[in-house]
Write a structure and sequence with these properties.
By secondary structure, the protein is an alpha+beta fold. It folds into two domains: 298 residues, TIM Barrel (Alpha-Beta Barrel); 192 residues, Jelly Rolls (Sandwich), CATH 2.60.120. It is built from nine helices and 37 strands. The chain has an eight-stranded parallel barrel, surrounded by four helices. Strand 13 and strand 14 form a beta hairpin. Helix 3 packs parallel to helix 4 and helix 8 runs parallel beside helix 9. The chain is globular, with a radius of gyration of 28 Å. Belongs to the glycosyl hydrolase 59 family. One of its GO terms (biological process) is galactosylceramide catabolic process. One of its GO terms (cellular component) is membrane. Keywords: Disulfide bond, Glycoprotein, Glycosidase, Hydrolase, Lipid degradation, Lipid metabolism, Lysosome, Signal, Sphingolipid metabolism. Pfam families: Glyco_hydro_59, Glyco_hydro_59_C, Glyco_hydro_59M.
Length: 684
């Protein structure tokens, strides 16, 4: 009897009699899971053999930045914290050690938690330095040159649809736009994009997909593979079976949130099957349990050879939709605080001991007592086995609903045959998710297992993950503890005076409709040369319900009493307008229903105070004398149930009664998709 290290389970070999099902003959066993007698332990045997060939090729585990603006706050972290976060995500044999990074091809539209800027706001505009996805891909490649890169649009700039909310009426234009992003990645950042998608979770168009392949090939991008359709298995699978030309150009069928299941038509295509977006669950222990279960069962139940998490890192305000639905959390650049959440170490159980290009073994990976295992090999004698025993209530993902099932403590005996019969020792890594005490044991190395006469046994408790592997390269790395958490500064200023900003967007502003970028006002005499400008002037081809106004939020969602001051410059004559706001209560996919206290001024010389972004709930209105193409200073003061506003330092309106919302962010924005500038922002 060889006892595994730690109390978490034991490794057992060399018992005389093994019967499938229950132990009928008592033997001298190591301690089983707590409270379970050895003689009553459910027991089963599993054979791992490559003599009859291998299963599907493994394509890697990844995560998504974008869809949308999920990495927004990450870029504003100071060193060394920013590099530490990136190491935990991308550095091989360090933390999550991701194989794949999928990014949004920004399209100026709301894509869940914000907008990401396009490389082509307008038809005659190209700029491959906007946003932060280029930077993130380079940082990932710097740490792991072998990481695979995927680009996928959620939204498109309005000019692509020529007035229609649809990207397929002019497929040549859309193909040119997407291919230009791939060419720009190479030309300006030396990034090779490996895969490109069609339109996230929206309709696909066969003519467009074929034209995309043609356009890629025409520009020498034969190596870029196409994923379709980032939605459901159907109807793409059926269409591929009926259309041989489409079948030729689509390389991967990507489904979202498949619940570990595939469909017969998808299997019939003989294409690679991926869960190209999954997880999306709050990153506590239940989120870790969800992730552990689907990383195995997407292959065991659904033949999926890649699983990609939405999202990579929660670097967006937590009160936006789906707060902290990420592998780790880094939402406080002002303090430097971040948290390596348990899903990072669950990821490591697979990623640190496999690589894209390895193959799954052909084996039914269901455990008799519930849970699952997968086994992979590099074809050169290395073997990695990942086992999970996640219980139903501790592994529910955000979607789809999880049918009930049971997991019980069990003893699993593995027989190694074929090229693995010579394996004598396996390294052991273990996690146990604890839901009562909160003291989870994550990614700990235990004593190696000795394989005797081609087999070994393992006592498995509930809510555990084991990796058994011939590789000795695994590491659980730790950076020094980051600084403690702090709320957003209660006195915050930005004058946007930066000549060569490292990023196109000002720190901590989270655009929710429209795009706000640093701007150099060459014609200004001096006070307002460097400003922040809203630059989207046509409604994008939307993915979510973007507002009809543009808005960027900033600050602490819990703020109640505060003063916002900002210099504003309306560029659109006659019906142009801008606002500053407080107690802003919504964003992301819910931006259209945003409430707050909004102080508007318009180019026609009027002002309004409204209780909502849509401008339907008018609390006060009057004349202001504001005109377009001139700078003015707006001040909004909110105290308790009362608000007042100043124009150029003089009271314009006061004692407006407000009941709801009771708290929220500060914000700036415009009346429509129009150019406007902001300067000397201050919130206190």
């Amino acid at each position: 009897v060889a006892d595994g290290a730690g109390q978490s389970g034991s490794v057992v070999m060399g018992c005389a009699v093994l019967l499938w099902g229950w132990f009928l003959l008592g033997c001298s066993w190591g301690p089983g899971p707590p409270g379970v007698g050895a003689a009553a332990l459910l027991t089963a045997a599993y054979v791992l053999d490559d003599a009859g060939g291998l299963g599907r090729q493994f394509d890697g585990i990844g995560a998504i930045s974008g869809g949308g603006a999920t990495s927004r706050l990450l870029v504003n972290y100071q060193e060394p914290y920013r590099s530490q976060i990136l190491d935990y995500l991308f550095k091989p044999n360090f933390g999550a050690s991701l194989h794949i990074l999928k990014v949004e091809i920004g399209g100026d539209g709301q894509s869940t938690d914000g907008t990401e800027p396009s490389h082509m706001h307008y038809e005659n505009d190209e700029n491959y330095f906007r946003g932060y996805e280029w930077w993130l891909m380079k940082e990932a490649k710097k740490r792991n040159p072998k990481i695979k890169l995927i680009g996928l649009p959620w939204t498109f700039p309005g000019w692509i649809g020529k007035g229609e909310n649809w990207p397929y009426d002019y497929p040549d234009v859309t193909a040119y736009y997407v291919v230009s992003w791939i060419l720009g990645a190479k030309q300006y950042h030396n990034l090779d994009i490996d895969y490109v998608g069609i339109w996230n979770e929206r309709a696909f168009n066969s003519k467009y997909i074929k034209l995309l392949r043609y356009t890629l090939d025409k520009h020498g991008l034969q190596q870029v593979r196409i994923i379709a359709s980032d939605r459901l298995w159907e109807p793409i699978s059926v269409v591929l079976l009926l259309d041989s030309e489409l079948h030729r150009v689509v390389d991967v069928i990507g489904a979202h949130y498949p619940g570990t299941k595939t469909v017969p038509d998808a299997l019939l295509t003989q294409k690679k099957l991926w869960s190209s977006e999954d997880y999306s669950t709050f990153n506590d222990e239940v989120g870790a349990g969800c992730w552990a279960r689907i990383l195995n069962q997407n292959y065991v139940n659904g033949n999926m050879t890649s699983t990609i998490a939405w999202n990579l890192v929660a670097s967006y305000y937590e009160d936006l939709p789906f707060g902290r639905c990420a592998l780790m959390t880094a939402q406080e650049p002002w303090s430097g605080h971040y948290k390596v959440e348990s899903p990072v170490w669950i990821t490591a159980h697979t990623t640190q001991f496999t690589q894209p290009g390895w193959s799954y073994l052909q084996v039914d990976g269901h455990l008799e007592g519930g849970g699952s295992f997968v086994a992979l090999t590099d074809g050169l004698g290395n073997l990695t086995i990942i086992i999970e025993t996640m219980s139903h209530n501790h592994s529910q993902c955000i979607r789809p609903p999880l049918p009930h099932y049971n997991v019980t403590p069990q003893r699993a005996t593995f027989y190694l045959k074929g090229s693995f019969c010579m394996v004598k020792t396996l390294q052991v890594w273990h996690s146990r998710l604890s839901f009562e005490s909160g003291n989870s044991s994550l990614f700990h190395q235990l004593h190696p297992v000795k394989v005797q006469k081609g087999s070994f046994s393992l006592d498995l408790n509930v809510d555990e993950v084991y990796t058994l592997t011939t590789l000795k390269t695994g590491q659980k790395c730790h950076c020094p503890e980051p600084p403690p958490p702090q709320p957003f500064p209660s006195n915050y200023k930005d004058d946007f005076n930066i000549r060569n900003p490292p990023f196109s967007e000002a720190p901590n502003f989270a655009d929710q409709t429209g795009v706000f970028e640093y701007f150099i006002n060459a014609s200004d005499p001096g006070d307002h040369v460097f400003t922040l400008r809203q630059v989207v002037v046509q409604r994008p081809i939307t993915w979510a319900s973007d507002a009809d106004q543009t808005i960027s939020v900033i600050g602490n969602f819990q703020w109640v009493n505060f003063t916002v001051t900002c210099d504003i410059y309306i560029e659109k004559p006659r019906d142009g307008g801008v606002f500053i706001a407080g107690r802003v209560d919504n964003g992301g996919i819910y931006v259209r229903r945003t409430k707050g206290i909004f102080f508007w001024v318009f180019a026609d010389g009027t002002y309004q105070v409204t209780g909502d972004l849509a401008g339907e709930e008018i609390l006060m209105k009057g004349l202001s004398g504001v005109r377009d193409n001139a700078w003015h200073t707006l001040t909004l003061n909110i105290q308790g149930a009362s608000a007042s506003g100043l124009l150029n330092g003089y009271p314009l309106w006061e004692n407006v009664t407000i009941s709801k919302p009771t708290n929220g962010w500060a914000a700036i924005g415009t009346r429509s998709f129009e150019f406007a500038q902001f300067d000397n922002f201050h919130v206190e």
